[in-house]
Hints:
It is a single chain. By secondary structure, the protein is mainly beta. The protein has 3 helices and 36 strands. The protein has 2 domains: 2-218, no CATH class; 243-476, Methylamine Dehydrogenase, Chain H. It has helices at residues 2-16, 37-40, 133-136; strands at residues 33-36, 44-45, 49-51, 55-62, 69-76, 86-89, 92-98, 102-110, 113-120, 130-132, 140-141, 145-147, 151-158, 165-172, 185-188, 191-197, 201-209, 212-218, 243-248, 254-259, 264-268, 285-290, 296-301, 306-310, 327-332, 338-343, 348-352, 369-374, 381-385, 390-393, 410-415, 421-426, 431-435, 452-457, 464-468, 473-476. The strands form 10 sheets. Strands 2, 3, 5, 6 and 8 form a 5-stranded antiparallel β-sheet that branches. Strands 11, 12, 14, 15 and 17 form a 5-stranded antiparallel β-sheet that branches. A 4-stranded antiparallel β-sheet has the order 1-9-4-7.
Amino acid sequence: MLLRRYFALALAIVTLSGIAGILSETPAAADSDTFSSSTIGQSGSTPSFNQTAAWSLSWSYSNCVGGSGNFSADINGSSDGDPGPNELGSGGSGTDVYYDAGTFNISVISECDWSITVAPYFAAPSTSPTFSNTQTGQTGQTPQFQAASGWSMSWSYSNCIDGSGNFSVNIVQPAGDDTFDVGPNELGSGGSGTDTYTDSGVFSLQVLSECDWTININSAIAAPAPSPAPTPSPTPTPAAPTAVGIASTPDGGGYWIAYSNGAVSPHGNAGNYGGVQNLTLNAPINHIVSTPDGGGYWLVAADGGTFSEGDAQFYGSTGSMHLNAPVVDMAPTPDGGGYWLVASDGGIFSYGDAVFHGSTGGMPLNQPVVGMAPDKSTGGYWLVARDGGIFAFDAPFYGSTGSIHLNKPVNGMAATFSGLGYWFVASDGGIFNYGDAGFYGSTGSLVLNKPIVGMAPDNATGGYWLLGSDGGIFSYDAPFLGAG
């Protein structure tokens, strides 16, 4: 059953990429309409319909093949990346709300009977609402809410597909809001937490999940009352930074390990060019990339802030911009004269001599983008999503895991030295190789202390290193040169 769901997700990505066609019909005369499997089939595309302002999508599914199945609906024509329902079970229902206008149609991939009703939406924003998967489905968009300056989001998730799954929340902020609000992005069997924000206005939430979840909004956090000076207490020890990325030297004789606080640890013949651990960062570092000559490296943060060390040149960043989604990776051009940044929605930001070849920034994705790699043979690049789906822009397609059920999600990729292949790495260290990328081993069958967060190729041997979030190094057909 899970294999069918991942196949449906992969097919949706292919459809969104323009490889498969989408039906285009005369827009419906009214803003309210109902579509169902009885007229379209369990899988198919609806006629087009118009919406002039906020609108809702109410859905239900039942009578699945084999008693349980997948039901997913992709919204075509959205300028805001509207996430449609993506459910797996014996049946369910919910309502999602969207705030863009235009002409839309819906591509449905389903193993169940279903019904969808679209209609204008008029409700005013709530002030302290509670949202859950029973209202919108595991994946979908909530109604808007009004938040005062100083608001919080308390969240929890559980009952994940296959016992473990992803739960991520994208905060849709008011126009002109330049605060970088980051929602939870979790992977596991369950969890909870509270995030606090300082901006105000009307917001909504886009949830991508494989689990049941609940979100409570507290839109007015009272300032604490004045109190007597507290009794001095020992300063708490800050949490240790985690390893977030690895980059190898061009000759394969060394590598650097980067940490969330901006520190960098060199190993082998990798030069010591310093880090940014002494700076106050607006967002944590999440990636490191070597220059082509190995004489320096770039560090990139989740807000797209870019830091150049050694002979790496600074060409620009998104650090001062309001982003729709956090930056998750970067890639240099072959000559080191520029670089690309990629956000989790697949948005691409080009700097220096980096040429923009396309992005998924305007597409509603079934799974977020988690990494990218440059194709040195064409000057293009690849983007990889959490399910291993590949988006190739002026770069050849060698294969993907988009139709495979994965034990753990993909969280990064690396290209071979020739540019004629690539590897994906999953959080359990599972390796997937395509093109001229060789398979030399993985940690997919091992019990790890911490998840794998990155990989780097050894250009001298064709092998690779894997990095755990605790700084542990796993070497495959590559020399072990030290851990973090």
